[in-house]
Amino acid sequence: MADYFTRKKREIGVELNEVQKQAVLHGNGPLLLLASPGSGKTTTIMMRIGHLIEERGADPARIKGVTFSKAAAEDMKQRYKRMFPTLPEVDFSTIHSLAFAVVRDYLRKEQKSWQLIEGPIEDPADYKANKKLLLRTLFQRFNSEAMTDDQLEEMSNYISLIKNKLLPRKKWSTVQCEVANAEAIAAEYEAVKREEPDKLLLDYDDMLTLALEAFQSDRKLLRKYQQRYDHLLTDESQDTSLVQHAIVEKLVEPHQNLCVVADDDQSIYTWRAAEPQYLLDFKKVYPKAVILMMEQNYRSTPEIVNAANEFIKRNKNRYEKNMFTENPEGEAVRIKVFPDYEDQAAYLAQELSKLEDYRDAAVLYRTNSSSILIMNELERARIPFYMKDSDVRFFSHWIVEDILNFMRLTFNSGRVDLFEKISMKCLGYVTRQQLFELRKQPEEGSVFDRLLQLKSLKDYQKKQINGLKRAFVRMEGGEPYHVIRLIREQAGYDRALEKMSENLGFSLEYLHDVLSTLEQIARKETGMVAFANRLKQLESLLKTSKFNKHENAVTLSTFHSSKGLEFKKVYMLDLIADIIPSKNDKTEQDKGNKDPMEEAARLFYVGMTRAEKELELLSYRNRAGSKTNPSPFLLRVNKIIQPPESEQVDESRVPQNPNALRKVSDLEVGRKVKHRVFGTGRIEGFSEDGLEIRFSKGTKRLAIDLCLTMGLLEPVE
């Protein structure tokens, strides 16, 4: 066998380590290959396929490679061709493509016609022929209002989740969904698709469940597909759902020649029904399976690898692995904590402008809303960017439209149509009947003056409408940032959002995020018209950024979308508590459910391991006038890369100090503090090394979390 590896090193320059060679040489039977980030998994898979064909005589047509996405399938196909240009083709495809072939055969045999309801349609009136239109129609029927894009996405995810988890109808209620009447809408959606017994309407998830159903009910069809392949390889299997695993199990039942390539530490799609637990239970399904761990990282510096490896070890529900690298040493992982949210964007623009090649850098964040302010700063600095999976829904969000309608009303206070759109979201609740009366009045003067003339108004309404009128007078001709603050504080918008969130289950945290982003954009605009035009410009810029994919541009991406990518320099931003991990992650942990918190840690780990040479973690102490706390993940990394100078202090022996500083917000620059070991000093600021305090014997850099949790600092009055 050594001849094979020697030959391949000579022919294509590929040299494998010992674990990779074991994976290539593995004979028949199940193999679970746990591949750490940057461990060369695709090369190993290709070498295994080549070995099966060249050394073991396997028929290329009887080898099946299954991947998570079309892009991954195409990448593997091209990689195989480059490495083995003289060998016949191997079949690489997505699991959905495989399921599609099975369903097509099955329904042909059952003499049933079918129609795929994903994608565009010719006749918009035929709402049943399009999944999105069908869901919007049903939502309107059940809730008597139009469905927003966010609700459509939430509803689609809900339906996909219950199918991929193979949940029976009686268990649909166990899946959380914020869309009103979601369970009833899903049931009606399924009923409509099966109204005609001889013609099924199918979505992509139906392809999976129906393929499994076909295998379970038609033994002849199952044998046909079982006999088609002698070897099956699945990539990115940590992202595979229960129904997808079940299809693969059926296919390999006779021979068990299955090679599963995955990394349980990179499972970040449980909200899409991925089942990381399946990997941990692999030996229960395949008792004779061999499990190999590819732990050597070829991508990143030791500083990045060691920090990421130690970070993910805090997760409990995982295989015990130790990622390492033999790459040369590089830059230390850097942590920067800025005074304010907007300082982060300014810093990024400043740093990215120094790059010779913009393609070397990526800016990563948890939510798409984080990208808007970064995009705003990069455009001003003339730095080109490519946004992976760009999402323009921010600009059509109802909060954005509300703010613009408030501003429009300041230009023409007589427009009843504008007031109607915002009347439920400001001071002075006006009934539908009163709005009807208002519309009947002559259009003279402001809507506020005309409202005050209505005889049906109660005294408290008059008082509130007068207050609203005064707020709009202050807004007239004002700077956009000042106007937004007046809308939120004096027009009652923030209070209205709190009530809506309470009654309708909206995330108030996310709504405040949208408002905060609008405020930051508004700060640099003079005039409300300029602000509105800037939003249009940014929306257009976001839409066209997808054309920069292969250009010299900085990549902007969510942590989720960055998976599989690598860059010389990575910035991870908005690393504050309640963003990563989210408030919901923390709530679930407090209830005893640690799974969401562990997935958030895996998501953070994915972001860290995208970096080859340099990694910077960015946070800030204030956002829109409110104090923030650093992400506990940031504090964990800080402790790893900068072990505390006072770590010799035994926590169990430190007496409780009721005066100790316990919150990050208490660590104000310039504040005098007393440290248990080093005495009295003054807080100088935050740096990549943690908290800087100047004592009489010099400046010390201390771990923030250690100082707070152990109560090592107390204020000096």
From TrEMBL:
Pfam families: UvrD-helicase, UvrD_C. SUPFAM superfamilies: P-loop containing nucleoside triphosphate hydrolases. Residues 302-564 form the UvrD-like helicase C-terminal domain. Signal peptide: none annotated. Keywords: ATP-binding, DNA-binding, Helicase, Hydrolase, Isomerase, Nucleotide-binding. GO terms for molecular function: helicase activity; hydrolase activity. InterPro entries: DExx_box_DNA_helicase_dom_sf (IPR013986), DNA_helicase_UvrD-like_C (IPR014017), DNA_helicase_UvrD/REP (IPR000212), P-loop_NTPase (IPR027417), UvrD-like_ATP-bd (IPR014016). ATP binds at residues 35-42. It is an enzyme of class 5 (isomerase). Belongs to the helicase family. UvrD subfamily. This is DNA 3'-5' helicase. It comes from Jeotgalibacillus terrae.
